[in-house]
Structure formats: C-alpha cells, structure tokens
Amino acid sequence: MSSPDCDGGSILAGKPTGSVVKVNGTDAYLAPAPPSNSAPSEPNGSVGVVLLSDAFGIPLVNTKLIADKLANELQCDVWIPDLFDGAPLLRVEGMETQLLPDRPGYSTFWDKFRLIAFVILPRIGTILRSRPSVSDFRAKQFIKAIREDRRYRKVGGVGYSYGGAVAARLATTFDYLDTVVICHPAPVSIKEIKGIKIPPSWVCAEEDDMFFKKKRMQAEAIFANRKDSGDAIPYEFIDYKGTVHGFACRPNLAFEDVKVAFEQSLEQTTAWLRKTLNE
Fold first, then answer.
1. Which string of DSSP letters, residue by residue, matches 113-130?
2. How far apart are CA 190 and CA 207, in angstroms?
C-alpha cells in the first residue's frame, strides 16, 4: 500500500478486494477471510474484526485497503460499517484542503481556523446527523447483527480518529467487542477512558490536537493504576515520532518516518488482535 503521487498525500494506492454488502439494510464493506478459513472450522468458532472508520467513512479507499490487509494477516472477516448512513462527515474529494499539516510543529492558528470555518461549519448539519450518540448506536446494532448472523466466538475492533472514539466508547461494556485498538482517537473523556473494560491497544501520534499529550499520559496512568485496584486489564500505548493525527489511516508516505510509522502501526494492530482474539 503505497502512493506513487506525493501530491496525493493521504490517498493510498491499491484496489480493494472486498465488497460492499448490506447488513440490516445498512452498507458495510466486507474483507472476507481467505478461502481456507472462511468457514468457522475452529473448535470454538471463528473470530471477526470491525474497523470503525475516520470521518471520511467507507468512500475513502484507505480503510478498505487496511481491512483487506488485516483480513489476510489475521485470517478472518474484517468489516467496515457505515457509521454515517451514506453521508460521511467529510468528503474525500476535498481531503487536501481538509487535512491539517502532515508533520508535528507546523500546525498554525490559520490551519485550525480554516478547518473550522471552511470545512466543519458548512457541514454542521451532516455532522449533527451523525453525532456520537447516533453513530455509536449504528455501530452497536451492526456488531450485534454480525455476531448473531456469523456466530463469531470473538469480535475485535480497530478505530481510527472518529472511529477511534467510537471504539473507546464501545469498549466500556462487554456487550459488543472483546478487544480493541484505538488509533489517534477523536476526543474521548477521562470518564470514558476510566470505563474501558476490554483490553485496549493505543496507537498514538507525536502531535495530536484531539488526543493531546496531557490526556494521552493521563490515559496510560489510568491503566497503570488499575494494577493495584484488582480490575487490571492488558493494555499498551505506543507513540510514533514524526506523526500527527490521522497518520495510521491517512499517512503522507512522502515522509519516510511517517511511512515507517504507518507500517508499524499496522503491525501493532495485527499483533494485538491476533494475541487477544486467540486467548
């Protein structure tokens, strides 16, 4: 997964191998398990993974390519539900003007003003129609549906940016996911972080205006302190130098350290899900 066009910045090259299907009338991208493992032949049933996308939703090819890779590496179905009911919060066509700088230390007040004034405010209606309570409900209904239909033994989750925050909130109960990878999430509260009940792996950018350094350190301290309170769970936090919010799903591969960080974040995700889904 690489981009031959540096000006394309955050669009990955490649053709998805999965397909868009309907689940309870809602679109979802399915990257199926490789044929040899497509049937639930494991003694205790098969596993599945749900990828919760960033604000660009299913139209962004990047998440489909990531789902394809995870399906192949993990030998299981990987799903991307439409969290936005056909109306993603942001348009792929405007990605170049919608993204903040690709490197730490370059974000300015003007960048943030431009993002709010020219991108977020004109789409405020779309954003409100897929506010967190609504997108969370869609994710919950989707996961319940595939668990019932496919009879997965376990379901893991990986969320990016907007989907990272959805994943964190879903992780506060045992009802939907069994393990989760949270990649540079949109804002999550300390209360939500404290409420996480399933094993989380955190993919963290060096500079992130949504999951800023202070909160990232508070989050890790919360899990470290649980070791002495009797409710400890496995967890990990990995930081990637030279990166900013979005690098794990929209990396600018023109920068070698960002390319390496993107690849290593995929390895982190794969290793965590393989370990925790097979325990």
1. HHIIIIIIGGGHHHHHHT
2. 19
- Predicted confidence (pLDDT) at residue 162 exceeds the cutoff of 50: yes
Q: Residue 100 — very low, low, confident or very high, per pLDDT cuts 50/70/90?
A: low
Alpha helical stretches, state H, the chain: 61-74, 95-98, 109-114, 124-129, 132-150, 162-170, 190-194, 213-225, 256-277
Distances (CA, A) of 179 to 64, 185, 234, 260, 265: 21, 16, 10, 25, 16
The two tokens of residue 166 are 């959805």
What's the pTM value of the predicted model, to 2 decimals? 0.90
Task: Give 92-97 contacts, CB < 8 A, sequence gap 24+.
Answer: 92/11, 92/56, 92/59, 92/60, 94/119, 95/9, 95/10, 95/11, 95/56, 95/60, 95/250, 96/9
Q: State pLDDT tens for residues 35-61.
A: 874 444 443 459 999 999 999 999 999
3-state secondary structure of 81: strand
Give the burial string for 101-120 (b: 16+ CB within 10 Å, else e). Answer: ebbeeebeeeeeeebeeebb
3-class state of residue 91 by DSSP: coil
Q: Which two tokens stand for residue 54?
A: 């960033």
Say whether pLDDT at 112 is over 80: no
CA–CA dist 47, 76 (Å, integer) = 6
Amino acid at position 52, single letter: L
Query: How do residues 18-34 score in pLDDT, each as one tens digit?
Result: 999 999 888 999 999 99
Distance CA 51, CA 80 (A): 5
Provide the token pair at 152: 């997965």
Confidence of residue 95 (pLDDT cuts 50, 70, 90): low
User: What are the structure tokens assigned to 221, written together?
Assistant: 């301290």
How far from 84 is each of 78, 97, 130, 261, CA to CA, in Å? 18, 21, 6, 28
